[in-house]
């Protein structure tokens, strides 16, 4: 199993702090950088350049009108990263509700775009060192849930790689949607 999948599994159950809101990460997807055709870094571009740098930086990009947040895991020049797909809001729930509108609490940070919106993460956070305590950073582990692995959501290439990891039976986990051309 590639190192990025080990780091992905390790992120589930940790806290991510963002702009007055804290979420317990419940779902992630690993992307193997230069060795993974589903990764933005498979081909080096200006957009993916941050993924080739030091680990524990935030890679933020826009997709379908939303932001998505990834933890660059390295090693440097490998360009591996982990997409944060979902979480449970554990602090700042009123702020998250203001950002997300009238949705059920378990759905506040379900899905990558909803996760970033609830935490206020935008392209301005691109490159943030997640080991420094402002404005977006990784916090401590609060639990070690039983993990389930399965294929990644919405990718065409390398679609069957079981590199999506989530907390078993957690209501905040997003639904699986296979890409129609996978």
From TrEMBL:
GO BP terms, alphabetized: base-excision repair
CDD domains membership: AAG
Group of enzyme by EC: hydrolase
One Gene Ontology term of the molecular function aspect: alkylbase DNA N-glycosylase activity
Keyword list, A-Z: DNA damage, DNA repair, Glycosidase, Hydrolase
EC number, UniProt record: 3.2.2.-
Record flagged with keyword Transmembrane: no
Organism superkingdom: Bacteria
InterPro entries: Formyl_transferase-like_C_sf (IPR011034), MPG (IPR003180), MPG_sf (IPR036995)
PANTHER family, A to Z: DNA-3-METHYLADENINE GLYCOSYLASE (PTHR10429)
Family: Belongs to the DNA glycosylase MPG family.
UniProt protein name: Putative 3-methyladenine DNA glycosylase
Native source species: Aeromicrobium senzhongii
